[in-house]
Queue: 2 jobs
Job 1
Amino acid sequence: MKTDPVTLELFKNALFSIADEMAVTICRTTYSGVLRDNMDFSTAFTDADGKLVAQGLTIPLHLGSIPTALEAVLAEFEGDIHPGDVFVINDPYHGGMHLPDVFIFKPIFVDGERLAFGATISHQADVGGRVPGSNASDSTEIFQEGLRIPPLKLYERGKPNETMWTMIETNVRIPVQVTGDMRAQLSACNIAERQFLELVERFGLETTRHYMMAVIEYAERLTRAGLRELPDGEYSFEDWIDDDGIDRDQPIRLFCTIRKRGDAIQVDWDGSAPQVKGAINCTLSFTKAVSYAAVRSVLAFDIPCNEGLFRAIDVTAPPGTVTNMVLPAACAARGLTGFRMGDCVYGALAKMLPDKVGAASDGGNTGITVGGYDDDRKPFIFVDFACGSWGGRPWADGVQGNSNMFANMASQSIELIEAENPLQVLSYELIPDRAGIGEYRGGVPYRRDYRFLEKEAVLQVRSDRRRIRPYGLYGGRPGKPSCNILNPDRNAQVLDSKLTMTLGQGDVFRHELPGGGGWGDPLKRDPQKVLKDVRNEFVSLERAAKDYGVVINDATWQIDEAATTRLREAHREKHGAEPLPTVTWEDA
């Protein structure tokens, strides 16, 4: 069948709108704040063989992993897939990523022929294991982390697998919430089926089959055309994770090499550290997802994210490393490593494309979980993810208060947090003098203070960038580090970046994000931008002078031009040719 470009565009938009409608369905019908408010879920549409065709506007690190999970389902059940079947999987050693992320797939049949799958993945607030939330970074093997679900049928020919549902309900602390969230995923799959059948009725069976493949081929052509415009070569970058939460004196190496030739690109993770004791190890599928997303972000914005994109990007990682774990590695907190791999890929891409790629972000979202029981032994689990400071870019400052680009998640409403959990949020504010300085400064980080109101709970935190700060580029300085503090206003105790501990009634936990790295020479920053930052309380008067050489009269809020010129000249004389020490690739 000949591909008509107008029909292709209409079909593509119709198919992508189905994936978006699936996402809206989950958001409207889910039970938990981590899905409804954080939006830690994703939706997609694949062809009959599990090739990703369309994705919803959700999380890149989920979507790039869907093909691996569905491949595991097909390997287990090919020849035994029927109308009305629904499949579930979460086991990272059978196609999943980590146990809280539960995949649900529904095959879609037309006239007895399997034509597509509706695909969803949601972060469940609990899947059992040794701690509430199933997300601790100090687990040391997968068997501690909760219920492992290999590829199984959740429904068979339209009939629920009651044994499977009972098994799930029995092994989680909050079964109503978890099964409610899973039913939200089922609702999204049913929406996908209904709207896809309407699409087939509109376009016809043969045309639908043809254009599903055409959308993939279209994405591949655009991807390869975009890659041809990038410079050929080999570019490597090294970054370090502070520790794994177990061996606290042992930093963990991430090493990425990008090899670009013609219309293809390879992202190779050889040289990264061996897998670790703590639960920050990653599956290869997760490593692929972050690599796809990073390369995709330097290409044209209108390239569809599907199998066609993946075909042009080869991702490799040696087994037994933090980027491609093997049994019995724990991985509940693998998101930490995944986001940090994103910064590592960007470090390599910054060498390839210095005018397109910014400095390091805050390192991805911090995971915070508070779980326990009230006086009536009723369980509660609060899951929150915090991120918000991008690195400075070659053309603009890093943004603040915005999700990490690999997450595309939202911040939970304080009112809802307090209404649904035994918590008070005492502060939620940007922190001055924490962004990496540069001609374009990094994003300004924020802090949140949570006061616990029940008698006792378990607090879990996975964070990083305490010792290895977000790198700056081309003269920009690193962002300030993250910080965890218990009871900051009374007997303040600085906590480790990764922790599992007990909270008591009235305890206050504060998390401070790291600042984004700066880009370029700080003494080249426009003084008017420095003044604006001071007025917005992003930068103090003292740091404006010390870091940027800008003197501001706080009575008139005017820049003292002569004093600024003298101070900047003094900075240059003191530091020689480089006005401030440059962050080298090795230091980063």
Note: Residues 358-523 form one domain.
Job 2
Amino acid sequence: MNKDTRLAMFDRLAIAIPNPDTELNYSTPFELLIAVVLSAQATDKGVNKATAKLFPVGNTPQAILALGLDGLKECIKTIGLYNTKGANIIKLCQRLIDRHNGEVPKTRNELEALAGVGRKTANVILNTAFGQPTIAVDTHIFRVSNRTGLAKGKNVLEVEKKLEKWVPKKHKLDAHHLLILHGRYTCIARKPRCESCVIENLCDFKDKTEG
């Protein structure tokens, strides 16, 4: 796939998805951080259900520590792996207070030092909370990038590095959410909706479906 095709692809996606953003509910960087930690192997809908219960009583590191692990788990028990996630969140909150005055740090290294935060989560926070042009490669982005030929790779880091290099500059900030939303609603896993896809004729996918 050449430079002009990639630009045309993102231009079309940007028109089709005029307000690309996360579907997680949050109002502060800390709330987003907690929501993303909870979102591992969970749907955004499921996370929003849990945080609707959690955030009114625990939307700062101090408030969550005051809840304690048992109180926290009571709020997030509808989420998969809630025991592990709860323990990580308690550690994360303590570190934020000890090292960052309760604020969410704005660097990758500091974010990845938090319990339960890996490269993908750090990229989401940097992009969505702090407006940095990072791309967190989740299952949707990995699939879309490989299927379309936009950025083929055998693992998420390989795809991420190619996207960082090849995504047109003017779309760098929104690329993460454009690709996620395209993968979530159009270029879906089992039977992609090629008949309603705005980039269908730019895509390398061989087995396109018809409506």
Note: The CA atoms of residues 36 and 121 lie 6 Å apart.
